[in-house]
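Re: [help] complex structure
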Amino acid sequence: MEPLIITCAPVGGEIMPDQTPHLPVTPEQLGQTAAAIREAGASIVHVHCRNDDGTNTHEVERFRAAFAAIRAQSDLVVQFSTGGAIGMTPEERSSVLQLRPEMATLTCGSVNFGDDIFENSFPIMRGILARMREYDVKPELEIFDKGHLANARRLASEGVLTLPQHADFVLGVPGGLEATVQNLCELVDDLPAGCTWTVAGIGRQQLPLAMVAIAMGGHVRVGLEDNLYYSKGRLARNEELVARVVRIAHEAGRAVATPDQAREILGLRKLAVA
Ligand code: KMH
Ligand code: ZN
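Output below.
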């Protein structure tokens, strides 16, 4: 099996600082988190940004500062969110692509998201993909529901998305596909040929689905964006969620990818040395 790529999603767009003291809010805190999760064994960091008061922002200058802080302290693959937070416009969500992160997410369809709707119509997806092509950013296909893979195939048939790509199955969002092993297996079976995949289980399903992905040859995402707790009632730090997956992978005899190995698996260019 290829080495395990561990993505850490340390912030997200939903958790607020009054829910945990471990949420990185400022660019400096994101830089420190990057160093800590890299040390623990992560190879990709999935980036959302916050204002100093913890509210969400997709402001280009905030992402620029976060990108610089992460790069100053780690060689992680940097993946920006284009999902942002509920209520952001498609323009806001995609404007950060001009900073040319190595990767960025493309959610492949609309989905209920708690009491809200996370809107990703075909025009929104085409618009994000156009900017990804303009700035040469590799998409990661965010799959929250079964039909999202069909949407990706439709975008490919239109010629606006090339396949294969890397997919991230985000399972367990209230309103999306439930975080079960059966659902994961069905999605893996339905993947377009040649695609690689990661699973991000929400909440307490993060750990069991990570274990299944390690065994199946997939890849794993952990982090506070998806799961606040290390165990029942005990708030997690991002780096310890990563470290636990590394320990399990080692026990299972699966090597863990460095960022450069992740770049090779995902078809990304090597990081230029300054
Ligand atoms: N915060 C969610 C509404 C992504 O980063 O691409 C969307 C999200 C997906 O987190
Ligand atoms: Zn995200």
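The longest strand covers residues 138-143.
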